[in-house]
Amino acid sequence: MSRISATDRLRRVLAVVPWIVAQPDGAPIDEVCARFGVSREALLADLETVFMVGLYPYTPDALIDVTIEDDRVWIRLADYFARPLRLSHGEALALVATGKGLSDAPGADPDGPLARGLAKVARTSGVDPDSAVDVDLGEAAPTLLESLQRAVADRSSVDLDYYSFGRDEVTQRRVDPWRVYAMQGHWYLDGFCHLSGEERVFRVDRIREATITDVHFDPPDDLADVGGPVFRPRPDDPRVVLELAPSARWVVEQYPIEASTDVDGGWLRVTLVVASSGWLERLLLRLGPDARVLDAPDGLETAAVAAAQRVLGRYK
Questions:
Q1: Which of these, 13, 96, 136, 228, is most buried using a 10 Å CB contact count?
Q2: Whole-prediction pTM
Q3: Options 1.10.287, 2.60.120, 1.10.10, 1.10.3470; which CATH number does 6-125 get?
Q4: Residue 187: which H helix or E strand, with range?
């Protein structure tokens, strides 16, 4: 039997939980397994994960409760599920669209609590769950995208005038373009950069100009595996250790974290790869008192102070 992916397992869990919740007398484990096409071992492993879901400070009233007795299972939702949600139109649309996708999971009840809840969200938010959705893949000049896609198809190198956000400078470089793709709301160009001598990922909206050359290249043999995370840290990139206040936990969701540990007072200790000193300066200025630098390479531990002094200098 092939191993299920994390995405498929999450879809299954999100379909199983509301169905069990809707059974006030508990659900027979064998019935759950048969309905959702999952083995008993896999179901119990899923339920072990569910009861750890909750909100800080992770007290019993903030965690989902899973009870298994005599081959029956009960799931009781945490108190925070009783709080009314205040969703923007975009959040409601995203919730309804995601929920509609879950309705295709094996065993999902088309008339169950998930379907009824989504119908209420759609009705109160003015969202038509059956309408078409326009997807914004990010800003990029159509002529530039067309040129880059043509260069990829023709295997032609391109000369780029590229703005580096981390270093705040424009550089000229030749790139062998391997792929143009959209991810996380932006268009990206993936290829071999002759200036750095390595594979690089470029945001298309930061390309000032692209010129297709007469030079052709051979793409790598494993081109199908090219791509993945937009930021790919290297072993020799500097690392910084920060402590983040509870209000700054968004950093973990927005940036790649190599390690994280909970500390006293709800703070979080994280290890970040530093793409450039300018990037770290902007991040620390944005965080302000919600971040403390515990460990950083020489020259980076005072990054926020140096950046703040330059900003203040503009007002003199």
A1: 96
A2: 0.45
A3: 1.10.10
A4: strand 186-193
